[in-house]
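Subject — a protein and its fold

Tokens — whole-number codes for backbone shape
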Amino acid sequence: MLIKRRTKISDPRKKHSTLHDNELKRRSRSALGPDTIMEQPEDIMADCIIFRQDHPPFWKRKRFHFIIGLTVGLLATYGASTTPTAQIHLNDLQAYLALQLADLDIASIIPATDIVDELFGNVTNFFTPAPSTDTPFMPALAAKEELGLKPHFPVVLLPGIVTSGLESWGTSEKSRKYFRKRMWGTTTMFRSVLLDKESWTQHMRLDPVTGLDPPGIKVRAAQGMDAADYFVTGFWVWAKVIENLAAIGYDSNDMHLASYDWRLSFYNLEVRDKFFTKLKSLIETSKLQDGRKSVIVAHSMGSVLFPYFLKWAESPEGGKGGPHWTENHIEAFVNIAGPMVGVPKALTALLSGESRDTMAIGSFGAYLLEKFFSRRERAMLMRTWAGSSSILPKGGDLIWGTTEDAPDDENHANQYSFGNMLSFTKPANTPKSDDENRTVRAVENIKDAITRQYTVDSSIDLLLRSSPKEYNDLIRSNYSLGAITSKKELDRVKNDRSKWSNPLESALPIAPNMKIFCLYGVGLNTERSYYYAKTDDPEVTCYPGNDTDCIDKDAGRRNETGINPSDEATENVADVLSDKLSLDDDKVPPSNLYIDGAVHDPIRGVETGVRFSDGDGTVPVLSLGYMCTPSGGWRKHADLYNPGRSPVLLKEYRHEQSDSKLDVRGGSKAGDHVDILGNWEMTLDILKIVSNQGDNVTERILSNIEEYAKRVPLQPTN
């Protein structure tokens, strides 16, 4: 018979006395005989607890010491770096690191695997800020009961350029690793660009002749709310608008996001994806279900795309909806930050692959960017995206100004008119690659350095003449960038699809009950014109996507420009392009033009070769508001451009920076081009419109857009 003996062992940790007793029982049992009591799993766990040690105070932990040491070190480094001597050494270090990183083959070091994708995702999450005022579902939660906000009209969200995710559906050998992965948006895009740039470029570029997918490539717009709610983890685009609409009762039955491949020309959206057919069917189905017309909430390029869609929907060669389709199906068009007459930065991005964004990253960042993804590569890629050309400046010199005067000119005695979209300067003494060593030239001294100036019309001509034939054909067949001031002429070209995306060459449908709300931010420096220069450095041109098959610049030169010498503007273009290569049609000549970052005078509104006006940080106020302001196109000149007298309301939102340093997206009063989608006041106005309370949204003009519109010399003709 098994005899159990109890041995009392003292232990000061009384709270574990029961566990101690169990341990003594187990040790006193015999390991032999049929009556042996086997050890249980819970007894083993009890053993572990006996040896548990108390945690030391947080100030004694190594992690605490590390954080304190790191913080002190960073503060000391920052303090030391402000001295002139330290700045010299830091610049030397930057140059050294740039040279080392430029020669680093990242793709051979980091494998292209799912683990790397996960790593990039985790890194993105780690650096994602948590803004202090980033309160979910606001302002809807606070206002819906007080204002009686609830779903009324079906809603369609129409994103802008680059905000819709693009994913690969190709099954060829080169595409299989990307199958159903985002080529644009999410961390997969960053991994692909960093580790496999050539393959990513092959997937993202379009055929320069057809404007469609190259052979063996199939990239399509992602679908559903996920297509444009976030660009990457933590960087919201439409997420705030979607969650606020959901907070007052909307869901996927009465709220839809119409994503599209923004690389395609508007015409090719229907040719390849039947986008307009699907959008028209969606709007018609919503009316059949609810008996109500739809509210279209469009942002940026989506606001340019929507009038094109309306013309297509009514056209006998398009949707065949007839002249009353818009009146019968569209309740309101909410135009958020729409560049209705174009964006200057689209011109420079296509001309030289540059904009304020690339000029503001500093010499170190610019050097790395140029080594990794040069401005010529960027320009070549974007020229295959016919969709990006839809936001080139429209209206010509009539809207954007002449060499002597522009509607939005301010009192800058030491500068030329904004009408000079591009002002060419004499080359600096140092080459383009030595930006960090260049002597900054102030604006008051730059007039003597100006060699040639271009208005919008001649700048567009310069772009076309410095581009391959395929790009010229693609743009001329899809877009028209002028202005028509004759009602008879507007009627004559009403079925010309190349004019449907230009509100100055195509009238709105007859829809007297369709309300138009123009909502955008102001108070931010926005690029308006540029100082350019030309380099004579030897250059090469290559087959797109093949860096090994290149031709030297000196291999041949064009003897004829094909320009009419009687036109002074095009003569200037001919001079600038006199060194243009004589190349085969399927090769793209490199641009030897660049923004002259040496022209820098922030006091006079010029930074690194970019001259600023008022706007939302991306689109100048002249483009944001001209069609909507009382003295603008859709109101004063309604006979031409708004014959149905659709009511138009303009509301501007002054950008106010948040007091919190954690509000990296600007906070609840942001007026930035994208961040305005999180502006609480504008969000509340959208909620009123979709709740059938649009009459409670009041007009507000904060900028000088009305004065600018009065200066536009637009005179209707017969």
Remarks:
- The longest strand covers residues 524-534.
- The CA atoms of residues 151 and 173 lie 47 Å apart.
- The chain has 27 helices and 19 strands.
